[in-house]
Amino acid sequence: QVQLVESGGGSVQAGGSLRLSCAASRYTNNSMGWFRQAPGKEREGVAAISYHGRATYYADSVKGRFTISRDNTRNMLYLQLNSLKIEDTAMYYCAYDDRRGQGTQVTVSS
């Protein structure tokens, strides 16, 4: 089973940026994605990317602000978060098949 480890979260002011990383323990040969969950809110799929990176998906709430990418040579998945808003505050998880990591916290303040 692949293990996923996220990093890069933190506390930023609104309008700031962060780059999240997800390290997979082995080769991943399918789509990968990010989802987030805030306390008291439903889990939200944020972005996904196909194996070759030719196809991407973004939730409407993050389109134009977040960018997903991957480096298959390093078994890495990334999520660039720009123009962060307070409502982006959540735990962000990397996902592959039915696996997910432990999450990395993103906190955006005014």
Can you characterise this structure?
It is a single chain. By secondary structure, this protein is an all-beta fold. The chain is built from no helices and eleven strands. It has strands at 4-7, 10-13, 18-24, 32-37, 44-49, 56-58, 66-71, 76-81, 90-96, 99-100, 104-109. The strands form two sheets. Strands 2, 4, 5, 6, 9, 10 and 11 form a seven-stranded mixed β-sheet that branches. The chain has a four-stranded antiparallel β-sheet with strand order 1-3-8-7, with no helix packed on it. A hairpin with a 6-residue loop joins β5 and β6. The radius of gyration is 13 Å and the shape is globular.
Strand-helix topology:
Blueprint (H helix, E strand, L loop, with lengths): L3 E4 L2 E4 L4 E7 L7 E6 L6 E6 L6 E3 L7 E6 L4 E6 L8 E7 L2 E2 L3 E6 L1
Parallel strand pairs: 2-11
Antiparallel strand pairs: 1-3, 3-8, 4-5, 4-9, 5-6, 7-8, 9-10, 9-11
Short description:
With 110 residues, this protein is mostly beta strands. It contains no helices and 11 strands. The protein is globular and about 40 Å long.
Contiguous low-pLDDT stretches (5 residues minimum) are none
Total helical segments: 0
Distance between the termini: 40 Å
Task: Calculate Rg over CA atoms.
Answer: 13 Å
What global shape is seen?
A: globular
Average the pLDDT over all residues and give the rounded result: 97
Percent of sequence in beta strands: over 45%
User: Main sheet, how many strands, which sense, barrel?
Assistant: 7 strands, mixed
How many DSSP-defined strands? 11
Structural class: mainly beta
Helix content: under 10%
Order of helices and strands: EEEEEEEEEEE
